[in-house]
Amino acid sequence: MNEVKEDELSVSTLEDETIEVEHLFAEPKNEHVSVDGVLSFGDESLGKCLHIEDFSCGFDYGLTNNGGLDSNTTQEGDDLQLDVLDGLLDEIDEVDDLDATNGLSNACECEDFLLDIEFAENVIKLDLGLSKGSCVGNSSSESQSPGLSGSSNGAVGISESSSVTILESECKNDALNKTATCKLHGGLVSKCGCPPPDEDSIHDTSLELRKLDDLNSDKNLIVCGISSAGGEKRLRKQTRRYIEEFSDKKLEYMKRGEKYSAGMRRRALTVIPEEKSLGGISVPAVSQFRARRGRPKKQKQEIESDKELVSSESEDDHVTKNISKKHDRRKHQRMWTPSEVIKLVDGISEYGVGRWTDIKRLLFSTSAYRTPIDLRDKWRNLLRASGAQKPNKKGVEQKQEHSLRPLPNSLLRRVLELAKIHPYPRVRISKNLCVGQVAPAIVSSASKGAPPSSLGGRTVRRKNYN
DNA sequence: TTTAGGG
DNA sequence: CCCTAAA
């Protein structure tokens, strides 16, 4: 009884702290819930007495270093950075592929890892809970297990709990992540110059991070490796859908036991180009979906992907079966990285609009997941985003006003430029043919039924049947 | 098979 | 992203 009361007390005090810290985070960046989770984690691992300064410090660090990423104030540098990073990722990607061939060696860890993830789902809720004040449990300076083991699985060791926690927080949100990881890797350990309050806890934390890193290098969680190396990383937001599907698969995995996990592992080791950010959790899902899609590829440079296809096909069947039931269409989106977009634009400006296969072959040969169609779709979206298309019946230019990601100016310029040179739907001369001489004649003659294929370029598809 | 367009 | 009709 008494204990409970005391707990409540400390909860409330802690709560105050948390809230304050929250402000620090919320101010510059307006972040979501996950902030709390990470925050609590930091709080906990540093020992309970900690230290808003620490966070502000850590945060500042992150902000100054990564802030440019999100704002479009520094496009060029931004692009550059991302480009470099992308290259990095690509390389890793290739390494991944190599690994995939003899990836069996990683079996055990993978299992463990899956289990970890499994557990993570519990933790994640708990993590969120922390923000509300339940962080007390975790706040005990050295052993963070009490809260965790108490509320979810009694059997989980410290290491698991902490690493998992990190993982989860990382998966949750991009922007936050940048700062958060920064804090974890740099600020927390020592970089931000905050005096280490509790050697032990810090030690633990870094240890855990280490472990995590190791894990990553073995699996596909390259995220952390990158983040620790470059001090920066990109994370994709984990869609609800991702989470759902993953949990589905997780269940499946539990049912099927070893066999399924093997399948997962296999797949996880294969594709995964950019999506490392998902921390390996949803990665398997992604790759398998791509595989399932079985797009037309017969070109030589895509042997690897073919291999993947073959190797994972058998399991895809039963795996996708129960998933595709729910969310039929629009499986998984693979976010376009800025560098990809740039590549695309480059390609278009070089080969012209419509040469999607060429562009794909020449510029995206390494990324097996981008089909020519994807390229085209992306271009279409770019046009739309740049406002270069569809003046919108009312004549309102509707531009990119409130688009989610405003599209960097540098890109915007190029897109518009390209849009001018060759408008996407190819020849946009439908009504009011500006070529006064030829057009009317054709129209009149074509009206009998002859297809206007003799027009300058492609004919504008018209929907007579509409 | 590839492109275009629509959902 | 997915699907389908055209070419």
Automatic annotation (TrEMBL):
Record-annotated membrane-spanning stretches: none
The protein's location, in the record's own words, is: Nucleus
Protein's UniProt keywords contain Nucleus:
yes
Q: Which UniProt keywords apply?
A: Nucleus
Q: Which segments show compositional bias classed as Basic residues?
A: 323-334
Asked if the Swiss-Prot or TrEMBL record annotates the protein with the keyword Transmembrane helix, the reply is no
What this protein is called in its record is Uncharacterized protein
Q: What is the lineage of its organism?
A: Eukaryota, Viridiplantae, Streptophyta, Embryophyta, Tracheophyta
Q: Where is the Myb-like domain?
A: 328-383
GO CC annotation, single: nucleus
Query: Region Disordered: which residues?
Result: 289-334, 446-466
What sequence ranges are listed for the domain HTH myb-type? Answer: 328-387
InterPro entries noted in UniProt: Myb_dom, SANT/Myb
Q: Which Pfam families match?
A: Myb_DNA-binding
Q: Where is the composition biased (Basic and acidic residues)?
A: 299-310
